[in-house]
Known about the structure:
Structural class: alpha/beta
Shape: globular
Order of helices and strands: EHEHEEHEHHEEEHEHEEHEH
Amino acid sequence: MRVGLITPIHGPFADPAAGAPSYKKIRGVAVAAEREGLHSVWVTDHLIFRFPPENENIASHEAFTFWAGLAEATSTIELGSLVLCMPFRNPGMMAKLAVSLDEIAENRVTFGIGCGWHKPEFDAFGYPFDNIVSRFDEALQVFHPLLRTGKADFHGKYVEASNCELCPPDTRPGGIPIMIASKQPRMMDLTVQYADQWNSAWFGEVGGWKKTVDDLDAACERNGRDPKSIVKTAGVGIEFMDASPTDGYDPALSVKGPVELLAQRMAEYRDAGCDHFIGNLTGLDEEKVGKFAEAARMAGLI
């Protein structure tokens, strides 16, 4: 099992006034992850957060700008997105961006995509939020063939691409890996039709993730795909503490406790068939990257 870290480029939900982290901090985290021997780092993709009832602005940087910087700042670690919101960008342009980014990264990009979920940012930036799965479906019918064949010609209700070609095309052996995040049946079906990898998040104990794997396997059966042919990844929330809290803590939703507990959870995900464990650390900094790597070493993963 591979192990990596999500590097949120937005501010903390619990403290909107804190603002978004600097590129210098995110770069330092990615470089530390590479130095520690982790397999991957993953950028987030949001424009702004506003949660009721306060609806305070929670800031976020733009994903591709930071992602390209990390591609230049690192040399070996896998660089993924968890996940890009497809409606924010034209799918043909998204494919163009993918190829250019992977050129900078020298074939280290994993392209995670999803249909979006936070309506306030769609409203604020003028993106339609209706029929988001149908829009995602049509976008995939442009994005996927462009990455796999270099060409797309599609005319749908929401998406148009007339005689579109990628010049230059994706020349990476096997193609840039496509990952789709999904939990509901229709999105699961799109995942097994188009994706090389699958993600579901956020979890603590492995039981909840295993139930979603069962749903993915059912989607594979519906669509005639071998479940073993798709890479299964898990997003896991993590907060380091001297001991796990005793009150108000649901261990199904996150891992809260010492490094040793995280090592145990990592081993449980590995034994359950997880291919890639992606941690979301509260208050992520370079010191916590070191603790995460220590847990991975305890579990025999790096």
